[in-house]
TrEMBL record:
GO terms for cellular component: endoplasmic reticulum membrane; Golgi membrane. It is a multi-pass membrane protein. It is found in: Membrane. One of its GO terms (molecular function) is antiporter activity. This is UAA transporter. It comes from Dillenia turbinata. Residues 329-351 have a biased composition (Basic and acidic residues). Residues 320-351 are annotated as: Disordered. InterPro entries: EmrE-like, SCL35B1-4/HUT1. Keywords: Antiport, Membrane, Transmembrane, Transmembrane helix, Transport.
Length: 351
């Protein structure tokens, strides 16, 4: 099953199956980093500069952009390998997570939201044990690795005294809801890829968008956001240009994330998305020449320890698998030699 899964993986025309794991990881991570770096810049501009806080509406608009871009990529519903009902739960948590995450920026500043979202890897790992078709369990050292990564990122975020976290009860509730949905999201995606390895990234994004967009209509109507956002964007139509540009970049990031989920699993992907936040913060300090304190250094050290601890067991596992395969091949040779001896004895003439 794993071989067929790898054979079907490609990313925007780049074949991943014939490449070693580290190249697959580098290509997928690069696409993810690029897409969500642009996404972060656009969100900062729309939410903080323009003071537009219409998370549900913006997610709804970008859904149409996704569908258009996926259609231009050549994907149609005829290429689906899963029934539509497969994507109902996935679509509900996907749209809920996007809407709550974007909407929480109206009540939380970026450092506060970042602190909450950086803990995502832990609930993702815990929830993996309860998803049907997955039932994934992780060894203790992987939980330690995740804790190092999370604590390191929180320390790095808190080290910036000029942008201290600003908490709001409504914002905390919204971002906590997004975290709960994120814990289901990655594991549901991995379960679909595991049960049916022929599922493509484009199919998952297309179906989850089509099925998920109707879930956005009730919260837009109940909160009155639909009409407020329509009036505000009508007065500033260039916002739609920013949303389209953001959706184009985010599509690259989304497909790259789905590739990571399909090849490396939900927990590893969650760790990559958490590490991306640290890299984004570090780049902002380098570009704008902000001073780095000892707390920044401690945070970076913990992040590095978490990533290293995550990678080291993979090497040990590969080494163990290699020794097991060598042992198995030795046993196979002994079995063949024993079979030959028995055959020779049977062919000896009776005296």
């Amino acid at each position: 099953m794993k071989n067929s899964e790898e054979q079907s993986r490609s990313l925007f025309g780049i074949t991943l199956s014939d490449r070693p794991k580290w190249q697959q990881f580098l290509i997928c991570s690069s696409g993810f980093f690029f897409g969500y770096l642009v996404n972060g810049i656009c969100e900062e501009y729309v939410y903080n500069r323009l003071q537009f806080s219409y998370g549900w509406y913006f997610t709804f608009v970008q859904g149409f952009v996704y569908l258009l871009l996926i259609y231009l990529q050549g994907f149609t519903s005829k290429q689906m390998v899963n029934p539509w009902k497969t994507y109902v739960k996935l679509s509900a948590v996907l749209m809920g997570s996007h809407g709550l995450t974007k909407g929480s920026l109206a009540f939380l500043n970026y450092p506060a939201q970042l602190m909450f979202k950086s803990t995502k890897v832990l609930p993702v790992m815990v929830m993996g044990a309860f998803i049907p078709g997955l039932r994934r369990k992780y060894p203790p050292h992987e939980y330690v690795s995740a804790v190092f990564l999370v604590v390191g990122l929180i320390l790095f975020t808190l080290a910036d005294a000029h942008t201290s976290p600003n908490f709001s009860v409504i914002g905390v509730i919204m971002v906590s809801g997004a975290l709960i949905m994120d814990s289901f999201l990655g594991n549901l995606q991995e379960a679909i890829f595991t049960v049916n390895p022929e599922t493509t990234q484009m199919e998952m994004l297309f179906c989850s968008t089509v099925v998920g967009m109707p879930f956005l209509i009730p919260p837009m109507l109940l909160t009155g956001e639909l009409f407020k956002a329509w009036n505000s964007c009508s007065q500033h139509p260039y916002v739609y240009g920013v949303l389209v540009f953001e959706a184009m970049a985010t599509l690259i990031g989304q497909v790259s994330v789905l590739s990571l989920v399909a090849i490396f699993g939900a927990a590893t992907t969650a760790m990559v998305t958490t590490a991306r936040k640290a890299v984004t913060l570090l780049l902002s300090y380098m570009i704008f020449t902000k001073p780095l304190t000892e707390q920044h250094g401690t945070g970076l050290l913990l992040i590095g320890m978490g990533i290293t601890l995550k990678l080291l067991p993979d090497y040990k596992t590969n080494k163990r698998v290699s020794s097991q395969s060598t042992k198995a091949s030795g046993e196979d040779r002994r079995s063949i030699e024993l079979g030959k001896r028995q055959k020779d004895e049977e062919q000896k003439p009776l005296v």
